[in-house]
């Protein structure tokens, strides 16, 4: 079984490293990656070292419904204050959420 994943906040260093790790995982398919700054641009324009792994993948704006339609699990990697509003929306719609932001740290 392959898990369809989304990454909210995929253009920075942490997002790039996460996507580098996921690129070689045999049981995941990255189907959605967001970036406010680079929406519409090819993912590999920002992370050229991953060119062989993510052909055709483009950055999108955050669209909760589109993420729910395309993903089973979503990594949330956002600046302070953003995850606390997005994560409940994903959970309410049945997505598994892995939060890499600071919003829910104890």
Automatic annotation (TrEMBL):
Swiss-Prot/TrEMBL keywords: Amino-acid biosynthesis, Arginine biosynthesis
Pfam families named in the record: Semialdhyde_dh
KW Amino-acid biosynthesis (keyword) present: yes
Keyword Ubl conjugation: no
Domain of life: Archaea
GO biological process, one term: L-arginine biosynthetic process
Domain Semialdehyde dehydrogenase NAD-binding as annotated: residue spans: 4-105
GO function term, MF aspect, one: oxidoreductase activity, acting on the aldehyde or oxo group of donors, NAD or NADP as acceptor
Entries under PANTHER family matching the protein: N-ACETYL-GAMMA-GLUTAMYL-PHOSPHATE REDUCTASE, CHLOROPLASTIC-RELATED, N-ACETYL-GAMMA-GLUTAMYL-PHOSPHATE REDUCTASE, CHLOROPLASTIC-RELATED-RELATED
The protein's name: N-acetyl-gamma-glutamyl-phosphate reductase
Organism: Caldiarchaeum subterraneum
């Amino acid at each position: 079984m392959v898990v369809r994943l989304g990454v909210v906040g995929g253009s920075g260093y942490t997002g790039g490293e996460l996507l580098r790790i996921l690129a070689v995982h045999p049981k995941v398919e990255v189907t959605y990656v967001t970036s406010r700054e680079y929406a519409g641009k090819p993912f590999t324009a920002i992370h050229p070292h991953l060119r062989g792994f993510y052909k055709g993948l483009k950055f999108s704006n955050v669209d909760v419904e589109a993420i729910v339609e395309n993903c089973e699990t979503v990594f949330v990697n956002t600046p302070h204050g953003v995850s606390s509003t997005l994560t409940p929306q994903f959970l309410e719609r049945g997505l598994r959420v892995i939060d890499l932001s600071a919003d829910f740290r104890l």
